[in-house]
Amino acid sequence: MKILLVGAGPDIKLPKNVKEYFVCAVDGGYETCNKFGIIPNFYIGDKDSYSGQINCDSLTKDPHKDDSDMEIALNKFIKNSDEVYITGVLGGRLSHTIGNLMLLARKDYSIVNNVKIYGDKKVVFSVIGKQYVEADFSKYKLFSMFSFTESTHINRLDGFEYNLENAILNQSSTLGLSNVPKGKKQKIDIEKGSIIVVLEEKE
């Protein structure tokens, strides 16, 4: 099942084929769905950023809770999904943006389960632990990666203007900032550690 999670943030990038997704509005994301004419299949939230009527199945939470609404939504749908497309989680409150990005540090919420965050002309995903990723990033102008862990051992980064081999990316380093994909095949081979990747489209 393909899952679309819609948050309340201003940076929205919807998939072209929304009807192919099971749509979950996450709290204020219900209003975002209304704005774009999308009828959610499900709602999850504590109604602190949306107080209107909910016209679908819902899971309403107490505002006094440990997990964010987005984390609760991910936990609910991750096991039965082939893809999780997340939008509306960037560009609003800085604390919420950082919190949403930090969710990607969990292996369950990484590229291994096809979990990605989409904004206008950008996509964010994570590579957690020993993994090999091969993909075509040629539509993107810039590729940046940062270490979630104290350091990440990169066996190989290939298909970019600046390739790496047997390199260490430290958490406090900007070594992975603003690389450029070259050709139609990019390879990320991680030996140990975890990275978050930001792809930015060409204008």
Describe it.
The protein folds into two domains: 119 residues, Thiamin pyrophosphokinase, catalytic domain (Rossmann fold); 75 residues, Thiamin pyrophosphokinase, catalytic domain (Rossmann fold, 3-Layer(aba) Sandwich). Helix content is 12%, strand content 38%. It contains three helices and 13 strands. The longest helix is centred in the middle third of the chain and has 9 residues. The radius of gyration is 17 Å and the shape is elongated.
What's the helix and strand layout?
Blueprint: E1 2-6, E2 22-26, H1 29-35, E3 42-45, E4 57-60, H2 69-77, E5 83-87, H3 94-102, E6 115-119, E7 122-128, E8 131-135, E9 140-147, E10 151-158, E11 164-170, E12 186-192, E13 194-201
Parallel strand pairs: 1-2, 1-5, 2-3, 3-4, 5-6
Antiparallel strand pairs: 6-7, 7-13, 8-12, 9-13, 10-11, 10-12
Core attributes:
203 residues, mainly beta, Rossmann fold, 3 helices, 38% strand
Any idea what the CATH architecture of the largest domain is?
3-Layer(aba) Sandwich
Please give the radius of gyration in angstroms.
17 Å
Fraction of residues in helices?
Answer: 10-25%
**Span between termini:** 32 Å
Strand-residue fraction?
35-45%
The secondary-structure class comes to mainly beta
Q: Which word captures the global form?
A: elongated
Number of domains: 2
Strand arrangement, major sheet: 4-3-2-1-5-6-7-13-9
Number of helices: 3
CATH topology of the largest domain: Rossmann fold
Write the H/E string, N to C.
EEHEEHEHEEEEEEEE
> In the CATH hierarchy, what is the class of the largest domain?
Alpha Beta
Number of beta strands: 13
Query: For the residues shown, what is the average pLDDT?
Result: 91
Question: What do we call the CATH homologous superfamily of the largest domain?
Answer: Thiamin pyrophosphokinase, catalytic domain
